Each structure stands twice: as C-alpha cells, then as structure tokens.
DNA sequence: CTGTCTATGTATAATAC
DNA sequence: TGTATTATACATAGACA
C-alpha cells in the first residue's frame, strides 16, 4: 500500500516503525468508525503504543458499555458450552484437528466401521463445526 | 474503494449492508493484526453484529489481559487527573499546567530572565513533556 | 449466504521539503 | 521533527455464480 510491499514482521527501524504506527493507527480507527456507521454495528478498538499510551475508538457512548456487553457475551457463551459439554471430550472444544482427520479418514475408508453410532456421529459433527469455525477465523487473519 | 464512493451513513439495503459488513469486518481485523505485528503493539478489537454475534481480534494471548490493561490505564489516568486538579508539584510528574504557563511566559517575555540555568531548562523540558502527554491523552479520549 | 472478478477508491511507504 | 507529495499496493462496491 505504499511504494513497496512490506514484509509482515516487526519493522526494525525505530523511526519507520513509529511513523508506520502513527499512520496505520489512524487508518485503523477510521475504518473502525466507517464499519460501525455503514453497517450500524457496535465496534470497540484499543491500541496500546509500545510506550504504554492508549488510543481507542468506540462506536457507542462508552467503551465501558461495550466491554460490559463483551463480558455478558462471554458468560452466555460459556453457559452454552457448559450445556453441551456433556458429550464433549475436553473442556475447550472437542478433538484436535489431527484426531478429527484420522476419524474422518477411517469413516470414509471403512463404511462399516463398527464403533460409530448416532451419538458418535453427532459428536463428530459438533467437532467438525468447531474445527471449521477455527479454520475460518484463521483464514480471516491471514 | 469500490466501483463508487459510498456515503458515510448506514447502508439501508439489508443485503448490501450484510455483505459490506462481512467484507469490511475481515479487512478491519486483518489491518488490526498487521498493526500489531508491524509496530509490535497491543491491539484489541471487538465487533458485535446487529444480531449480537461477536467477532474479535486480539494481538496477545487473551482479550481479557488487554482489557485488564485498559482498566489499569483508566485508573492511572484518573490518578494523574486527580493529581493535577490539585495543581500538584507532586511525585508523579512535575508542575501544574498553570505554573508551567507562567514559567514559559516569563521566559519568552524576558530573554535574560536570570534564574534560568541549564538544570532549570532540563527540568522545564521534562515538565512540558509530561503536560503534553496529559493533554494528548485527554484529546484522544474526548 | 459465500466466493470470484474487476474497476475504482483508499491507505500508505518512500521521498521530498 | 513534522508536513506534504507521489507512486504503489491494497481494499472493496457492485455484479454475478
């Protein structure tokens, strides 16, 4: 977005890093504001400079209210996870991707694989959904 | 940034609004991530869709830790405001803004003002820097 | 609703002051 | 140290699948 392409790693030169920080920070805040206006959604953004200075943007009245909403959201999320964690193998969300891959592979290669029953399949579906969500999140970030 | 320029107001067509939300949200998260990597700073971003879904980005391990840092920052700020509301010359940062103003005024009006030596000037500079930082913080938060 | 394409509008890295 | 300019890279609106 400038004269040349930047590698995605920490800018080593202190001076350029500072300049880039200043420019990109305002750009980011501008875009956060645009998103909240155009799409009529709540947005909160916090940036701490390396020297501890705080820059923030918030679509509504106060960042505090957004943060409260975040806390509520986390609690609700936790409750719903607890609710269906009854069938889950681990607290934080099903099997590892490697495990899932093996499971799916067995299922595909051996259609009569006898350890599978409806309960297993329901759990498998849930794990795949989680894995899918995680993968999508990573994609957005790359 | 597309075929035509968008007005900065809520997009009325529900479908376009949703599409724009999806695209700009990923763009914003990507840029938040780039800022945190390139400039080696802490960034937290929260977006609530109109249907209450949460999308978030956080540069470190957990949003919680960033939010804690935010809370601390607010407390420190409150303390420093309280401090200079008293017109303090106290521990945490030099002279009151009123005192500084007088000092600078004397310096400007009387170039030969005799009480100034290098040590005083160094201290003055330090005080001005602190005052500047406090003013900037207030500006950012307003 | 998700992905793709592409013309255009924006953001910004480097540079000049 | 900013501030302004410019050349590029990037984001995305609209259209379509």
UniProtKB/TrEMBL annotation, chains A, B:
GO terms for cellular component: nucleus. Residues 69-96 are annotated as: Disordered. Keywords: DNA-binding, Nucleus, Transcription, Transcription regulation. One of its GO terms (biological process) is positive regulation of transcription by RNA polymerase II. InterPro entries: MADS-box/MEF2_TF, MEF2-like_N, TF_MADSbox, TF_MADSbox_sf. Gene3D superfamilies: Transcription factor, MADS-box. Pfam families: SRF-TF (PF00319). It comes from the Eukaryota. Residues 70-84 have a biased composition (Basic and acidic residues). It is found in: Nucleus. GO terms for molecular function: protein dimerization activity; RNA polymerase II transcription regulatory region sequence-specific DNA binding. This is MADS-box domain-containing protein. SMART domains: MADS. Residues 1-61 form the MADS-box domain. Coiled coil: none annotated.
